[in-house]
UniProtKB/TrEMBL annotation:
Stored CDD domains: KAZAL_FS
Protein's name according to its UniProt entry: Kazal-like domain-containing protein
PANTHER family membership: FOLLISTATIN, ISOFORM A-RELATED, FOLLISTATIN-RELATED
Source organism per UniProt: Thraustotheca clavata
Lineage: Eukaryota, Sar, Stramenopiles, Oomycota, Saprolegniomycetes
One GO CC term on file: extracellular region
Gene Ontology process terms (BP): cell differentiation
Cross-referenced Gene3D superfamilies: 3.30.60.30
The keyword Disulfide bond appears for this protein: yes
Keyword Transcription regulation carried by entry: no
Amino acid sequence: MKFDPQCGSNGLTYANLCELEKAHCKNAMVGLAHAGRCQRSKKCPSICTADYSPVCGSNGHTYSNLCRLTVARCNQGSSSTLHAVHYGHCTESNGSSHLNRIVTVCPEACEAKYSPLCASNGKTYSNKCYFEVDSCRNNSITIVHHGECNQNEMSCSRPCTREYWPICASNGITYANKCLFRIANCYANGLLSIVSYGQC
């Protein structure tokens, strides 16, 4: 076995590419960071983006994104075995904590029944199934009301980031960020207000 150190994306140094590939087979989140030994910096990074793209850590904790998991691992020191298990939230099953891979299956076919829904992207969907197909791929889309969207609602639509900075609105709904709150407020003709920052 040839010693040709490779740094894995989990911060561990592997003896060679073959060993790294074995680790990848056990955990698809592990990849090649760079050739050579992993370098441990004396100071851990402290700034991460606010993107909300949850990652389940090997400790059963859900981190808001991969950067935050990496910072946690760095803060635990060089002996840390913390690594990403999968994207998505960690789950609990049967009262005992263990990790399950979250798999979302999007609907593939919908019936032709016409029961229109207006969604937060300003689009009218023929029925709930067609809405679920799009919202499965983009979970920031929500149902605004039953029926077709009107012209005003189409002008409310705008793209939003997936940052998670929750806002509790006067309608009792928690919006993931200010952009999504503004869209909802537009649909409500400006009648909503921010009650607090954080979940309702």
